[in-house]
Design brief:
Mean pLDDT: 82
Strand order of the largest sheet: 1-2
Helix content: 25-40%
Strand content: 5-15%
Number of domains: 3
Oligomer: single chain
Order of helices and strands: HHEEHHEEH
Low-confidence stretches: 1-15
Length: 165
């Protein structure tokens, strides 16, 4: 099993970063390489959770969930295979359970880290496109994070304000 590493990239010049990134080591830099280049090596503890509830055994509907779920350690659906710093297991806190019940949401099947990275994938890319306002008769051109191939209707700020208010 490969070790998990975290490297702090401070005080590096571009040439050194480029040289380090061309390593052939499958899982990044080895502990020796990290220490030779004056980085901090962090040894993570192996996650050895005692899972008490598999994902398949979690009810689909929140009204079928009783308070006993608060003591369960629930297996993450990814089981650590997603490469998104999966925690492999998680617990439901009383505040979480209250929220899920109030909002009528099912108990999650993924650990908090996997859920976080899934949300990040839904964000628009860090790129701007030049678009024209899609309101009939308006010819304003502006920059937006919505690419031209997306289906959303995009208005300039003035037309949007008129539409909303």
């Amino acid at each position: 099993m490969a070790k998990t590493t975290e490297i702090f990239w401070h005080n590096l010049n571009i040439e050194k970063i480029a040289r380090l990134l061309k390593t052939d080591v499958e899982d990044g830099l080895s502990e020796k390489e990290v220490k030779e280049n004056f980085y901090n090596w962090i040894e993570y503890k192996k996650r050895d959770y005692k899972i008490t509830k598999n994902t398949e055994n979690v009810p689909d509907l929140i009204n079928e969930v009783d308070d006993s779920i608060l003591v369960d350690v629930i297996e993450c659906e990814h089981k650590g295979k997603c490469k998104e710093n999966c925690m492999t297991a998680f617990r439901i806190l009383p505040e979480d359970l209250q929220f899920y019940r109030r909002m009528n949401l099912p108990i999650p099947r993924l650990c908090p880290n996997c859920r976080h990275f899934n949300r990040l994938k839904l964000r628009n890319p860090l790129k701007l496109w030049h678009r024209n306002c899609m309101k009939e008769g308006c010819q304003n051109e502006f920059e937006t994070s919505y690419s031209p191939d997306r289906l959303e209707i995009i208005y300039c700020e003035k037309c949007y304000q008129q539409e909303v208010y």
